[in-house]
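User:
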Amino acid sequence: MDGETIEDKALATLLEMGMIPPKSLARRGGWIECSVDKPGNSDGRVMIFADGKGGICHNWKGGGEQRTFFLNSDEIKTRSLSKAEKRQIEKAKRQAEADRAARYAKAQKLAINFWANGNPATADHPYLKRKSVLPHGTRLHDYKAKHPSGNGTITIPGSLMIPLYNGQGFIVSLQFVYPHKNPVLGRDRNFLSGAPAGGHFWWIGKRSTDPDEPVLLCEGFATAATLHEQTGYRTYMAFSKDSLIKVARLLRERLPDTPITICADNDTDHPKGNVGVNAANEAAEEIGAAVAIPPIPNADFNDYAAYLREQNNEQ
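Assistant: Predicted structure:
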């Protein structure tokens, strides 16, 4: 439209991709970090080219989705990009990949260091007591988060550390679970800043020598701990519904003949439908797995175990 600026183009593209625009888009020829879905992460980047006529957005959380944008987009659609524009886009892509690799390497180094220096968690940790599960090898470390105001940091001592492994068997990130919900941050957990967003896992329990004994796959640590404690089966966690299918593929690749059961979160109250069950069904269909669902609404299997304890106490 007439009077549209390159900042307008960048803003529209960011919003279309589910990204939160940065405070300023004034910079030219360099990457600007921005968040995806919710403030506080650095899973997105945007660059306005030095000539101010176009730019590129990257959403790492969305599987590496990228889009370019230009002024006079109608003209761009009807003609081929010039060699200079193509070179600029390719250069931006290469730089983005290099930046992402450096960011991941830095986060991995931090994760390995934090994990190596963490103290073993004990069963009296407030989160573990609240969830009625054992530590299962988790460790403790202080967690530092950026203050939402942008001024200073918030330190949360005694946070539970849970490692995230990649398919090659290396720690690449950590999840920190706070002893209590932090009133300033408005949550009780977070992942290590700058680390890969998804598709990684951890597990509880030893692998059985019985080839017919199933392994379980679920979303979070408390659910995995509950499932393992109740069944004795090795239980893997994907940390989110979005990672279930990626972790399920890894498990099937490494355990081609092992029965796998995906234990869904029963998200009956989610505004977008039962996203937990849908994600579990999709993963199960792809790898030939079974699905288990808690028989009460809006619950995971840790919630269901708490419900059963409450029912027994009332009898």
